[in-house]
Structures are given as C-alpha cells and as structure tokens.
C-alpha cells in the first residue's frame, strides 16, 4: 500500500556530495557518480528541508511561508521527482496513490506556484570531465610516477607534448613531458 | 575581452557595454582562458543574460564554483599529508588569490601550486606521487621559479590564511602581488584572468600594505610591477587608490602585445609549436621552428631582464630566443629540466 503525503518523509542525501551555495542556486557535485547538478532556489529549498522527519505537506507549508506564495504538495513532488532521479535523496520516494505525475509544463499552464520559480534541477558539466581537457605543467607531470603519467597535454615547453613514461617502463618510474 | 572583464571581480561589477554579437564572438576566448565565470558575473545583470553565449558563461561559472570546492578539499588533504611528514608548504597563486575574489568560482585554477624547501622537495614529491593523480599539485623546489628573493626571506614574511578549520601558509600580500606580476609577465600576460588577479590583489590590499617590500630595491623589477598594475588599471579599470609612485602611460608595445595575446584562442599558445626534430627534414623547417618560437615583446623583455620603455623590442625578443636555444641545447646534453626558469638579469 502506498503512503500518503503525510507519511512520505524524504531525506536529502549528504554522503559523497560536495555542495556549494551560490547567489540564487545551489550546486551539488556527486563524487560517486562524477555528476554535477544545479538546483534552483525552490528545488534547493525542498532539498534542504528533507531531513527524514518532515512530510511532503510540511515542506509544502514551509515553502509557502518562505516564498510568500501558496505552494501545494505537487510543487514539492516536482522537486522530489527530480532530486530522486539525480540520486540526491537517501532513498527513492514514491508518489502516494491517486497523486498523478504532473510535468513542470502542466504546472505552469495551470498557473500553480506562480510567485516562485518552479523547482528545477539541471545537470552541468562535471569537473573531472572538464579537467580531462586541461593541460598540466611539466612539474605536475614530473611529480607523477608510472603508470599514472596519464598522457595529459603539457603546457609550455616546446608544445605538443604529453605526459609520458620516462626512461625504463615500470611502476614507480618517472614521467616526463615529451 | 577587456570590455567584458573590466570590474568583473568586484561584488557589484558594472554592466558591460557589449552587443550580443560581440559577446558571442569573444565567449570562446573567455572560456578558453578561464575567464568565463568572471564574464558571467558582468553579464548576468544585463540584457545579455538570456543569450546563448551568456548561458555558456554561466555554465563555466557553475563549473568553476564546484571545482573551487574540490580544490579546497584537495588542498586541505595535501596540507595534512605534507605537514604530517614535517613539511610546511607555501601556497602561491590559485586559492591564495582566489580567496580575495568576491565570489567562489570567479577565479578558475587547474592545480595547486605548492613550494617547499629545497631539502624537502624529494620527500614531498614522493608523498604526493603515492596518491597518483588524486592531487593536482604543481610542486616547486623552493621559490626560484617565482622570484629572485630567496626561500627564507619569502617564508619569513609568509602568513597563515584560514580555510575552514585549516590554516594555509601563503605569501604576504606584498610578496604575492610581486610574484603574481612576475608570473604573468613571464607568460606574456596571455591570460586575461591573470590580469584580473592583479586587479584583485591591488584593490583588496590591506591597510598598511608596504610598497617598499612589494617593489623591492631593483628598479627594473619595480618598474615591471608598476607596469603590470598600470595594465590592470588601463585595460580592466582596476582602482589603484593611493600609491607612492607615479603611474605613467604604458608603452604602446606593451598594451598591444597583451591585446594581441588575448585575441588569440588560449589553446594556440601551447599547441602551435611542434617538437624541434619535426622540422629537421623540411626545407623551410628551421624558419618555421623559429617563427613558432619567436617570443612576444613581453616575454622577450622579461626573459632578458630588459626595461619596459619605448625602445624597440626586437633585440630583446632575439636575445631571449638565443637564451632559450642555449637552454634547449643544455637540456639535450644533461636531460635535466631548467629548475630556475625565472632568471632576471639586472
């Protein structure tokens, strides 16, 4: 039997995440999955209120208060669906029986939650994916040892070089830009 | 680039006077040079904020903000690791200057530049190597790569800056501004974000900042620093405030050299040069190799310890090319990288 809104008590995931608060959004980097997400103000509000004790209705009430605008359970579920999809909750949450899934577009159409931006979670480029394109300096390369030379492009020097095993091949032997 | 980045580091940057089409043109350059987040801080309160180019800048801002958090975690771990072995490292650039920006993520940095006492270098290197690729540390043996001031002098004036529950040893503000200027000049002021660092260091300098310590007694070096600050003022509208020296107009070649570098995609600064031996069997090979390695006026002047005056730069550029050729030949015979790249000649 499915729970009701009064029984669902979502809990925000804390482990393995790096969180950075910015002006009007919260950035979350998932260390385990190497995924980064941006939560807009309302999604971040819902996420931070999910402490494993508050029900969906509690969060909706607090949301109304915070944004000085009526927020119903649907708005909270819109956030929870996305948070769940991106593994930002400790456990997946399921909508209660009889509560249909309403898309963000539908909510906007009926004018729900008009006074605040609807909860949105988007994925952004993960740092390691971006770093993979970054060059390293020769001294960073020199500090590495085989087999971790990585073949990363090197900066400076005579250009066009990558960090490669230097001298005899074998674990623990040095790397050099060449 | 200059128009997009002017005042971008401040808590409330001014709105840029840029058209959407101009922003679209310079956005790839901004992103490549690591200045995308700074540019976003300027356009986010303007009519340009909903353009596709602004969207890319915003993504860069988000990415740099997360990277800054990851770097801070890494930095704390590295400090703990080295300190547990009795090594006290000195952090330069990167976080040491990023902490002065008004927002996290404004200033992108790829690695952690740590200097250790020469005697500790091998030990530190082995400790960090044990972590494989985990820590993006650029380890320096002493401070010879940064300044002609010795380790004891710089370390003696260093200070501890708080990072959550950890204290990070950084250069004093005077030495750091000096080192930032030298580093930027040595690379020909190729990164616009590097000049933003100078602007930030100057604008956030503490009361009682000792210009004598910063500029030092070598007149030529002092002149380099003053010129770099002048560039930040002229190109990025940095507010210099009260200073005990006169800020004269920058030589035309200096400003032109910077703007020319900023107009080129940053990646081409490193990828245009093929290894020298790839030119051996080509009839025009050596001419091409020479053209690819021809230093910019700034790199040539700094590399030969020249003065920033209005004289032609050609002799400095040629002189520096000869110095580099000498180093290259030396490296061929010794197989050792040049440990002291910063070799100003007085």
In brief, what are we looking at here?
The complex is a heterodimer of chains A (178) and B (346). With 178 residues, chain A is of the alpha+beta class. Chain A is 29% helix and 15% strand.
Topology of this protein?
The complex is a heterodimer of chains A (178) and B (346).
Chain A: E1 17-21, E2 25-30, E3 35-40, H1 41-49, H2 56-67, H3 73-85, H4 104-109, E4 121-124, H5 127-131, H6 138-143, E5 163-165, E6 175-177
Antiparallel strand pairs in A: 1-2, 2-3, 3-4, 5-6
Chain B: H1 2-5, H2 20-32, H3 36-43, H4 52-84, E1 90-92, H5 95-98, E2 112-116, H6 121-129, E3 137-141, H7 151-157, E4 159-163, E5 166-170, H8 173-186, H9 192-203, H10 211-215, H11 219-236, H12 252-263, H13 268-271, H14 285-293, H15 297-303, H16 314-334
Parallel strand pairs in B: 2-3
Antiparallel strand pairs in B: 1-2, 4-5
Helix pairs in contact in B: 2-4, 3-4, 8-9, 8-11, 9-11, 15-16
Helix content of chain A: 25-40%
User: Whole-Å distance between the termini of chain B?
Assistant: 34 Å
Contiguous runs where pLDDT drops below 50 for at least 5 residues of chain B:
338-346
Query: Helix-strand pattern of chain A, N to C?
Result: EEEHHHHEHHEE
Enumerate the spans of chain A where pLDDT stays under 50 for 5 or more consecutive residues: none
Helical stretch tally of chain B: 16
Shape of chain A: elongated
Average pLDDT reading of chain A = 78
Number of DSSP helical runs of chain A: 6
Rg calc of chain B: 20 Å
Protein model, in words:
The complex is a heterodimer of chains A (178) and B (346). In chain A, strands 1-2-3-4 form a 4-stranded antiparallel sheet. Chain A has helices at 41-49, 56-67, 73-85, 104-109, 127-131, 138-143, and strands at residues 17-21, 25-30, 35-40, 121-124, 163-165, 175-177. Chain A is of the alpha+beta class and 178 residues long. In chain A, 29% of the residues lie in helices and 15% in strands. Helix content of chain B is 52%, strand content 7%. Chain B is built from 16 helices and 5 strands. Chain B has a 3-stranded mixed sheet. In chain B, strands 4-5 form a two-stranded antiparallel ribbon. In chain B, strand 4 and strand 5 form a beta hairpin. In chain B, helix 2 (20-32) runs parallel beside helix 4 (52-84). Chain B starts with a helix and ends in a 12-residue tail after the last helix. The interface between A and B is large, with 35 and 36 residues.
